[in-house]
Amino acid sequence: MREDLERTQSVNNFDMYQNNQQGYYSSGYQDNYSNNYQDNGYNGYQPQNNGGSNKAIIIVIIIATVIILALGGVVTFFLLNNGKSEPKEPMTTTEVTTTVAATEAETQAATVAVVNVEGAKEKDAYLKLNEAGISYTVSRQTSDDVAEGYVISQSPKDGYIKKDEKLTLYISKGSGKASSQSSEQAVTAAQSSVTPDPPSPPQRTISSSDYILPYADSRRYTESEIKTLSKSEMNYALNEIYAREGRLFKDQQLQNYFNSKSWYHGYIDPATFDSDIPAHLNTYERYNVDLIVRVEKQLGYR
After folding, report:
1. Residue 86 pLDDT more than 70?
2. DSSP 3-state assignment of 244?
3. Cα–Cα separations (whole angstroms), residue 272 to 23, 139, 163, 280
4. Domain spanning 183-194+202-298 has what CATH number?
């Protein structure tokens, strides 16, 4: 009996052991496996994200590249600049020197020293101003102190004048108290006092000094004498009277003609001369000018 009880107890104990083992594996193992596996992060596992690290690496590479390129540009600039600096200095100096020299030359060429001709005879004053390269205009005034044909004053009197400016000469017409006749009255009076032409007018003679009218400044020619001249000769004879007094000519043919004469010294600007022709001529010259013009009109030359 005792043995049967022990056997029965052993069998029961074995069954209990098996049941316990099954419960352990069926419930405990599942709980532990499930809970432990979840706790270990299987369901909550996310793949590790390396995007941030990659961006950081790319930014670092870009910054490093920019720095390298910038350094390379700076080095290249200094190398090129140092290589060209030596020839630049003399070029700059030369240009500055040339500019300064050119400016000084232009300043000197733009002005001329004034020549004072106050008290000089009119013709001498013209010659001096022409030699100095000074342009001028003439204003004639009466003067009780300065003889006719002499310079009373000038403006400016000294200093410098620009080459495109004109100096003004004030020339005496003589005393204002003396009675004066107009050029027309003087010519009319001279014509009325002329004696009739001789029956056999003298032949025209050109002097060795190569004048057409060699005595135009010292006697009155006759109409018959003037009519012995050709149309061209009359024109030259008329301008010859002006040329005697230093008139220049705009007509190149006339200018060339008188330049060929040993006696000719042109120095008066045509505009200045023509502004007051009678003032440049004496009584005989004024008479002969009017005579030539009158004959030219009679013959249809003018």
Report:
1. no
2. helix
3. 147, 10, 17, 10
4. 1.20.58.1690
Which DSSP helix (H) or strand (E) runs through 133? none
Token pair recorded at residue 208: 């060795």
- Residue identified by tokens 């600096």 is 85
Q: Per residue in 211-225, is it b (16+ CB within 10 Å) or e — as a string?
A: bbbbebbeebbbeeb
CA distance 190 to 193: 5
User: Is there a cis peptide before residue 198, judged by omega within 30 degrees of 0?
Assistant: no
Q: Residues 129, 136: contact at Cβ < 8 Å?
A: yes
Topology annotation, domain 114-172: Trypsin Inhibitor V; Chain A (3.30.10)
The pair of three-digit structure tokens given for residue 285, joined into one six-digit string: 């010259």
Instruction: Give CA angle at 140 (271, 187), nearest 5°.
Output: 80
Is 216 in contact with 245 (CB distance < 8 Å)? no
**Are residues 210 and 264 in contact, defined by beta-carbon separation less than 8 angstroms?**
no
pTM check: above 0.70: no
pLDDT at 124: 84
**Residue 225 · residue 205 · CB < 8 Å:** no
